[in-house]
């Protein structure tokens, strides 16, 4: 088992001006803890909970894993998200809230069929779906006490099918509807609604080869779905928010040669990593058993084509997560019977770390911390180029220091969830200093060339 601590101290500079000079401080953003939702195992034949649903946490300072709650009464876990000092969890029919300091459960709500969640402002938006459920496939809760604010029923809205995933982009709510709990009657729709008027929703077909969407992703400009259709083949759809609704390029769907594994996809930079649902026998690199191996396919969102297939030499991979600070792919692995594991890969799917987890390890949430130290301004040195980052307040200034200056680079601003919230074209030769203004929060700034290759990466913490 790999025991190395996964952390990377990256610094940026802030300054306060005084007569006769300035005082500088630097801050370090680190990945401190990773929360794990272990789905356990429910036997649907005997209707018994064989392994309970649990919540665990990995302390990256020590490399230790600890279980801090068992969710009694839940058949499985679904999703979790960190927001403003709290952890929010959906598990079967439970919506739960935990204090990150004490790890105590401080609130809960109950409703059947709770799927993935997203948080926007003071509200939690939850997708819904289950066998024999529901009369509403979207519910909205108050994140402070988890009281139900509203639900959109099937009788008065366009939302007639079970939903799986949900996100908010530019004050617009998006859902994927798949009708997955009615066998053989899968649909494929992206549902759109203004965040302040959910009743005014639209639906967009993901086309005939875009049925049964299971994952919803965004790079801050486009939305992407991974679709498993009738489980004989998969596809990836791209939705363009800024294109006219009646345009033929509003939705583009590309069929993939094989079906994808359940929940086995993640968007990292301009690439979707997905797990094909086929395997060859080999010897597991950690456990030493002869097991089916899976590969990892990389799909270019820029060109909407498969880039390549990377051998992983692992079995029973489950869910995939992008950790933006260190630029790594975190993958859960489990046999749903005896064990669970967290694997950490680089962009080429080379294993760099591993941590223990519970049975049915699935969804992850990353907790970041900020450390402030006094000192002098720091000049960041990446592999190429050298960039000075100056942060006197809500505006971040990037200054190019390398002698060789490209004509154009791209600056991607990613939030704590790894979503691109701003993308800036930096014409370095004509603009040696770039100013970017941001709302309060933690961000990762990534500088790439026009091919998408990462040149430089650094975190910033904005306090207004």
How does this structure look, described?
This protein is an all-beta fold and 464 residues long. The chain folds into 2 domains: 341 residues, Methylamine Dehydrogenase, Chain H (7 Propeller), CATH 2.130.10.10; 85 residues, Sandwich (Immunoglobulin-like), CATH 2.60.40. It contains no helices and 40 strands. The strands form 10 sheets. Strands 1, 2, 5, 6 and 32 form a 5-stranded antiparallel beta sheet that branches. Strands 23, 24, 25, 26 and 27 form a 5-stranded antiparallel beta sheet that branches. A 4-stranded antiparallel beta sheet has the order 7-8-9-10, with no helix packed on it. β12 and β13 form a beta hairpin. The two termini are 43 Å apart.
Keywords:
59% strand; mainly beta; Methylamine Dehydrogenase, Chain H; 5-stranded antiparallel β-sheet; 0% helix; 464 residues; 40 strands; single chain; Immunoglobulin-like; globular
